[in-house]
């Protein structure tokens, strides 16, 4: 494939046709109210298009349609091997349309085009194909029964799934849900973030093109307090899956209790510690990884390594390496393939990040890198990757999820102190440990209250490993075979022979 230049991408952006309508029962449709909202690109502030602003009336249409389609059995009772073939075709269509999807993703939420094309679209496609490949290889159980009894333990699709996904990895997070939800035979209503709805709207048509029956996948763009709330309160939505903030996750649990006790699976916030011991095998590699852990995707990552815990004896040696490594992560135009850091998703998020930087100053942390808005003349929302030294774990910048490229450096003296600081947070999504001592690595990993722990790397794993959090980072798991638990019900059938 010919490598595209910035000029190529900019031309494609000018030629791009934006679809902004909802997708219900295999057709693009306006919101019942006719209301729309503006989709503004953080790259340069341009208006990308008007997006359907769905509400409770649209949720009702989509749920009724999803339920009827589920009950018909056209997808829910299809042989697993046949659903597998369709899911693999769906994944293939994402790859065939990779450049369009990558461009939509970059224009919509500001990430570098090289990341959209090289990470997000392939990762989304893999999530669909991996789940599809697995579905006809998962066996049910026969209980250990007396000779005149037969106990069957079988899995069934839960029914209608509402999936609310975030704006930072819009396509990939959607497909982490769609892969197992669709493969197990459910009907799904996907609610993308109003900040980045474009790829979700586009792939709805690709799903039908792949052979997923109309009505199995519906997409409702709109706001959380309107259509998102309507789905969460709907009496005929069986399961709600969500990735986003802890604040909204808690609200969704309340809505479940106020409605039909729908199962609610939540992947929420994080304030992940990246622990570097003095005996780390390669300080240069650790420094480069620490820089990438906070700057990748503009720091808009739930697992961002936002707290760098450094053993005091190496702090003066290690921190300059991190500062130097961060210089390679410089914000630029996201349509330039050489750009490593793009724009924050919108003005609201940019102002939030800048307010946290101001809080770091106010609380007495020492700014040693970045800290400013840049490229303001472009009309986009760009903030320099930022490092604060001398941070106490009690400071606001160390306790709250910033969701931007702001790193807090905290020192420690012992492994026990490192674990205490690492666990002193409401969150428990991810953590990393750098040491050449295998016992220390294992003991520290065991002591960390986090759903993922990486040793001598940051952000390891693939579709075979479960992803999710402890504490207020949520419940349930995405990826791996464990994800299928969220989208199926266990049934015990006991037969007297």
UniProtKB/TrEMBL annotation:
<keyword id="KW-0560">Oxidoreductase</keyword>
<dbReference type="InterPro" id="IPR029510">
    <property type="entry name" value="Ald_DH_CS_GLU"/>
</dbReference>
<dbReference type="InterPro" id="IPR016161">
    <property type="entry name" value="Ald_DH/histidinol_DH"/>
</dbReference>
<dbReference type="InterPro" id="IPR016160">
    <property type="entry name" value="Ald_DH_CS_CYS"/>
</dbReference>
<feature type="domain" description="Aldehyde dehydrogenase">
    <location>
        <begin position="30"/>
        <end position="492"/>
    </location>
</feature>
<dbReference type="InterPro" id="IPR016163">
    <property type="entry name" value="Ald_DH_C"/>
</dbReference>
<comment type="similarity">
    <text>Belongs to the aldehyde dehydrogenase family.</text>
</comment>
<feature type="active site">
    <location>
        <position position="267"/>
    </location>
</feature>
<protein>
    <submittedName>
        <fullName>Aldehyde dehydrogenase</fullName>
    </submittedName>
</protein>
<dbReference type="GO" id="GO:0004030">
    <property type="term" value="F:aldehyde dehydrogenase [NAD(P)+] activity"/>
</dbReference>
<dbReference type="InterPro" id="IPR015590">
    <property type="entry name" value="Aldehyde_DH_dom"/>
</dbReference>
<dbReference type="InterPro" id="IPR016162">
    <property type="entry name" value="Ald_DH_N"/>
</dbReference>
<dbReference type="Pfam" id="PF00171">
    <property type="entry name" value="Aldedh"/>
</dbReference>
């Amino acid at each position: 494939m010919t490598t595209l230049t910035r000029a190529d991408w900019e031309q494609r952006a000018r030629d791009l046709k934006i679809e902004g309508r909802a997708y219900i029962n295999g057709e693009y449709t306006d919101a019942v109210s006719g209301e729309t909202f503006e989709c503004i690109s953080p790259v340069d502030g341009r208006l990308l298009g008007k997006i359907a602003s769905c509400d409770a009336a649209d949720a009702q249409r989509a749920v009724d349609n999803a339920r009827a389609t589920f009950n018909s059995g056209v997808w829910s009772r299809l042989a697993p091997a046949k659903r597998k073939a369709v899911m693999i075709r769906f994944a293939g269509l994402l790859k065939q349309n990779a450049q369009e999807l990558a461009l939509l993703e970059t224009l919509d939420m500001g990430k570098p085009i090289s990341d959209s094309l090289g990470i997000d679209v392939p990762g989304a496609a893999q999530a669909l194909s991996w789940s599809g490949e697995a579905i006809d290889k998962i066996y049910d159980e026969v209980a250990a029964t007396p000779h005149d009894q037969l106990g069957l333990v079988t899995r069934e699709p839960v029914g209608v799934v509402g999936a609310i996904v975030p704006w930072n990895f819009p396509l990939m997070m959607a497909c982490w849900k769609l892969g197992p939800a669709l493969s197990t035979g459910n009907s799904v209503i996907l609610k993308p973030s109003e900040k980045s709805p474009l790829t979700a709207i586009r792939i709805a048509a690709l799903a039908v093109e792949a052979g997923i029956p109309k009505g199995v996948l519906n997409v409702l763009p709109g706001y959380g307090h309107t259509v998102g709330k309507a789905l969460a309160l709907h009496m005929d939505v069986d399961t709600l899956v969500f990735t986003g903030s802890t604040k909204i996750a808690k609200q969704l649990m309340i809505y479940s209790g106020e409605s039909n006790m729908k199962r609610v699976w939540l992947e929420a916030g994080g304030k992940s510690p990246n622990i570097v011991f003095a005996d780390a095998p390669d300080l240069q590699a650790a420094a480069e990884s620490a820089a990438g852990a906070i700057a990748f995707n503009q720091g808009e990552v739930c697992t961002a390594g936002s707290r760098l815990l450094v053993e005091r004896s190496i702090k003066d040696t290690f921190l300059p390496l991190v500062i130097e490594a961060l210089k390679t992560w410089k914000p630029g135009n996201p349509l330039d393939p050489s750009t490593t850091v793009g724009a924050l998703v919108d003005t609201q998020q940019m102002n939030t990040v800048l307010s946290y930087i101001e809080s770091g100053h106010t609380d007495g942390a020492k700014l040693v890198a970045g800290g400013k808005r840049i490229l303001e003349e472009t009309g986009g929302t760009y903030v320099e990757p930022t490092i604060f030294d001398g941070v106490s774990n009690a400071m606001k910048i160390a306790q709250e999820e910033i969701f931007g490229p702001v790193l807090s450096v905290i020192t420690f003296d012992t492994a026990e102190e490192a674990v205490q600081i690492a666990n002193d947070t409401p969150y428990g999504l991810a953590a990393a440990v750098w040491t050449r001592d295998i016992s220390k690595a294992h003991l520290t990993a065991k002591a960390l209250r986090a759903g993922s722990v990486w040793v001598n790397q940051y952000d390891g794993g693939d579709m075979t490993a479960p992803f999710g959090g402890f504490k207020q980072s949520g419940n349930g798991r995405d990826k791996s075979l464990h994800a299928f638990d969220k989208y199926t019900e266990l049934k015990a059938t006991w037969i007297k022979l």
